[in-house]
Design brief:
single chain; 324 residues; alpha/beta; nine-stranded mixed sheet; four-stranded antiparallel sheet; 10 helices; 22% strand; globular; binds iron/sulfur cluster
Length: 324
């Protein structure tokens, strides 16, 4: 890979969860997460709720400060070699809750024009840009520009949030469950819009979702997270056709199928993930893994190369090339 457009280096984020002194407890939300994003690609991020996907997204866009680790944008350390303000115009985020993301007292045209005016654009230019962007995301500015958030449907509001992100002319957009709250037909329309925008503008996406079908549809590569760590990462075709981590295998086996002959009769993944305040020693998945063996509870597995650009953190792959 040439210089990645965005990369995470050993990101760690633990949140205080009560207790005092030596007894203080921490939620280990993100634990030593590293990955790279090539310009123009879409990285899907999957995992059960509580696996650290959203915290990782907020660390990536610097809405949260990591306890340790760095984010690099085009090879520059964000916050040190690249000022935060410059970074924020290049890397934008769209959240799941389309309503909470919009100021209820702002019209949609003002909501989209707000970012460019803060970054020094004249009001008339910013308004013109907002009109063009609303039009581009499928909302007629003469009909929707003067409306408030509560006057729009969820799909329309999410289109405004996408226009708002585009108003900064970003290179990267992090989409955190951005289509999850929409019904299926609206979801498909917004996904098509995102794919068109990516093609037109050469955008790079980090697409976070619990829906493995949607992630497969939109992603070039997929990263699977479990209890704040990367279990597996690789190209979408090889990860879906030949998953190497038992957790990925279980997630894929639990995917709903429209084919009645391929319906899963047993739950491949039993129970809830362990408490992230006190994660299991060794491999964090060993308390639920159907293939657990002696070393799993004693030693955390390193990432092993299982394909050209495909890696899995599991002792079962230790005979393959060790990379970290
Ligand atoms: Fe399962 Fe062991 Fe692999 Fe962890 S390291 S996923 S417990 S086989």
């Amino acid at each position: 890979m040439s210089t990645p457009i965005l990369s995470a280096h050993n990101l760690v984020k633990h949140f205080k969860a009560g207790g005092f002194g030596a007894a203080r407890k921490f939620v280990r939300a993100v634990n030593d997460v590293s990955f790279e994003l090539a310009s123009g690609e879409t990285l899907g991020v999957v995992g059960e709720s509580g696996c650290g996907k959203s915290t990782m997204a907020r660390l990536l866009v610097q809405l949260l400060t990591p306890d340790s680790g760095e984010v690099h944008y085009q090879g520059k350390v964000v916050g040190r070699e690249l000022p935060l303000k410059a970074f924020r115009s290049k890397v934008q985020m769209v959240f799941q809750d389309s309503f909470a993301s919009l100021n209820p007292r702002m019209t949609m045209i003002d909501a989209v024009a707000f970012g460019p005016t803060v970054h020094g654009m004249s009001r008339s230019d910013a308004t013109r840009k907002a009109q063009d962007l609303l039009d581009r995301v499928g909302l007629d500015p003469s009909r929707f520009g003067g409306r408030y958030a509560h006057e729009l449907s969820g799909g329309q509001r999410q289109r405004v949030n996408i226009a708002r992100a585009l108003a900064f002319d970003p290179q990267v957009i992090v989409l955190d469950e951005a289509v999850s709250a929409l019904d299926k037909s609206v979801e498909a329309q917004v996904l098509n819009l995102l794919m068109d925008l990516r093609r037109e503008r050469g955008l790079t996406y980090v697409f976070i979702s619990h829906d493995l079908n949607v992630v497969r549809h939109i992603s070039d590569r997929v990263m699977v997270m479990y209890l704040g760590e990367v279990a597996e990462i690789g190209p979408v075709e090889s990860l879906y056709s030949a998953p190497c981590h038992p957790y990925t295998q279980a997630l894929l086996a639990a995917m709903p199928s429209l084919d009645p002959d391929r319906r899963t009769m047993e739950a491949p993944l039993a129970g809830d993930p362990p408490n992230p305040i006190d994660p299991p020693q060794g491999c964090r998945f060993h308390t639920r893994c159907s293939r657990v063996f002696a070393p799993c509870s004693a030693q955390a597995p390193a990432q092993h190369k299982v394909g050209k650009t495909h890696f899995a953190a599991c002792h079962l792959n230790s005979a393959k090339e060790h990379v970290a």
